[in-house]
Design goal:
By secondary structure, the chain is an alpha/beta fold. The chain contains 12 helices and 16 strands. The two termini are about 45 Å apart.
Length: about 425
């Protein structure tokens, strides 16, 4: 990843630290905790009225309806009239890699030079001291997938938990995916003819060359993975997990034609693929279902890809994929806008999803796609205690109010720079903050 300018980074850090007190990561869970009296949204479609959830040493030990049995020396949290949710999961984001968008040098570290960089690991560039992370965490997001950008083959991503001292502590599941930006068919629609590519190539010629480069690299990497090499090739080593099933290929692609190409490419090589974006995935649902290829929708608050499409199509896309039996999840754009993830999921309820299906879209579904559903994504015995208590509906912008949040059983500090500024100016004008 790009080098960070030490002076610029220190100066920015000084300014931001002055504006906000440092928030320390929570200490490990020291005693059992039982939340009682809440409406519990399990994350798999099930809702428990007047329920309880108990956890100890970071793991859920019991969940059910009615009074919690054998609370013993546990800390009991009375959540009567409140809601308990599994922590939200945000895939494919630059959270922790970008601090000031198009801003000061040393605050953007999300890409490397060159087109084919599968060996780049975004995890080691993840900044746990980002001031953006607490603002996202305050809206119930507890896990994220910081993802590299740039070039055609951007690099590898990992899942992190959002309350850590450093990237080693943050790592939740490492190097789970390789990210490929599929070459796009450029039509020049609405903007006149497409200009020739660098070197005088036509757009079609440049695209075919990109496809050849990707195909040649992956073909060579597959052959490399099938033998014990005499010389270690770092790029091939990074791709090896795609061929033994330990990694997935996340393909950024929107058009129906390109989605078909991408799925066929993955099938030819025996790779598990995930479509990211997929604006026209509604046109190829049969292909996606038959090949068990999930889609991570990249925000719904946008316009459709085609002028002739229904203007509300992006809002309806989750319901279309749900009805077609295609596995799907949801992410947002960039980094700070991920705090809107629950609200975009909630808007899908107005266009056909049930509330629990919308919740699953950003909990269980995302967990399955990321390969972490055995440990998180739902509130079930044996899974990590990644959850939060809200006084209202967590998918509603008006009523979401995260009172307490736990990541692997640790009681997380929910303060952030925005709250500090609100308190500051509320105090100036004599307003109540409670």
């Amino acid at each position: 990843m790009k080098k960070i300018l030490l002076f610029g980074g220190l100066l920015l850090s000084t300014v931001l630290t002055y504006a906000q007190a440092v928030i320390s990561p929570a200490k490990p869970q020291s005693k059992p905790i039982v939340i009682t009296g809440a409406t519990i949204h399990v994350g798999n479609g099930k809702v428990i009225s007047n329920g309880y959830v108990a956890f100890d040493k970071g793991k859920i030990t019991a969940i059910g309806e009615g009074s919690a049995p054998n609370t013993g020396n546990a800390e009991v949290i009375n959540a009567n009239g409140k809601q308990v949710y599994p922590g939200f999961i945000c895939p494919v984001t630059t959270l922790g890699l970008v601090e000031i968008e198009e801003g000061a040098k040393g605050t953007v570290d999300d890409e490397e030079t060159g087109d084919l960089n599968p060996n780049v690991r975004s995890l080691i560039a993840y900044n746990t001291d980002s001031k953006v992370i607490p603002t996202v965490r305050s809206n119930g997001i507890v896990l994220a997938q910081p993802t590299p950008n740039g070039g055609m083959l951007s690099g590898q991503s990992s899942v992190v938990q959002l309350d850590a001292w450093n990237w080693e502590d943050a790592a939740y599941k490492t190097d789970i995916a390789v990210h490929l930006n599929w070459p796009v068919v450029r039509t020049g629609r609405r903007r006149g003819p497409v200009a020739p590519a660098a070197g005088g190539e036509s757009p079609d010629e440049a695209r075919l060359k990109q496809l050849d480069d990707v195909n040649n690299l992956f073909t060579a990497a597959k052959a490399y993975a099938e033998v014990k090499p005499d010389v270690i090739n770092l790029k091939f080593e990074a791709l090896k997990g795609l061929f033994n099933g330990s990694k997935k290929l996340f393909i950024n692609v929107d058009g129906a034609k390109e989605i078909i190409e991408a799925v066929n490419f993955a099938n030819k090589l025996g790779i598990k693929a995930v479509i990211v974006g997929g604006k026209e995935s509604y046109l190829v649902t049969n292909l996606l279902k038959q090949n068990n290829v999930p889609v991570i929708i990249r925000e719904t608050q946008t316009l459709p890809a085609r002028d002739e499409d229904d203007v509300y199509l992006p809002y309806k896309l989750p319901k279309i994929l749900q009805d077609a039996g295609v596995e799907y999840g949801l992410t947002g754009i960039g980094f700070w806008r991920q705090r809107n993830l629950p609200f975009e999921a909630g808007q899908a309820v107005g266009y056909g999803l049930t509330k629990e299906q919308a919740l699953s879209m950003i909990t269980l579904n995302n967990a399955r796609i990321l390969g972490i559903d055995k440990t998180t994504g739902t509130l079930e015995t044996g899974k990590d205690a990644n959850l939060f208590i809200s006084t209202g509906d967590a998918l509603d912008m008006i009523t979401l109010n995260v009172e307490q949040e736990f990541i692997q059983g640790r009681n997380v500090n929910l303060d952030n720079l925005h709250k500090e500024l609100y308190k500051k100016f509320a105090d100036k004008y004599g307003l109540k903050t409670e």
